[in-house]
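Re-running Arsenite methyltransferase to confirm reproducibility after the cluster update. Everything else is unchanged from the original entry.
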Amino acid sequence: MTDTTAEIQDYYRGKAAEAAEAKSCCAPDPTRFGPGAYGDIGPGEASDAALLASLGCGNPTAVAELRDGETVLDLGSGAGLDLILSARRVGPDGQVFGLDFLEEMLAVARQNIEDAEVGNVILLKGTIEQIPLPAATVDVIISNCVINLSVDKPAVFAEMARVLAPGGRLGITDVVAEDHLTPADRAERGGVSQCIAGALSKAEYLSLLAEAGLTDAEVVFTQDAADGMHSAIIRARKPGGCC
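Result of re-run:
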């Protein structure tokens, strides 16, 4: 482990501790945000370093219902927790891609993946607005509280639809606003809880999924993040495929 990787892991351990003490940056219940959302992880499934680095708003690996042999893409893969869990769920015949734009974060994920001894993960450097994969490459896209941070969300949805294989699906978690909140309302709440800045409304989420050609879409609120803002499970499917 390099000194830089160790320093970043220490940083994220500190951030996780701060989130727990403050009852999370997004919500009053740390048992369902950050590491608390992964209460069903079995012994040895992931390292403490990877778990403590999780600052998301859910557990997309549980939402996506991953199966043996599938190819998975994690948008904004961070320190690698969801990559490790996905790799174990899809098994040696499956493949997991992790996409992040920070080289330093990729270094942390690389170390955590090595420590977990999983060999079916490929890390990619890039942005979620321009996914560096060919079309129809993946069966499942997961993401944990990342899409709300994008400044070009239509591009993200178009890219997700492009790289999904026919019949492929989304199983992501994100922070979503109630429809009555204006962009100004959301920006004001983001000033208090930065991890919800830029969140789409439920109607906007469903509209962008439809515009991208994704079907069977649903946005289900799971927990309050701020007044009129919620952690949510988002599912959708690309038409086609055998099932």
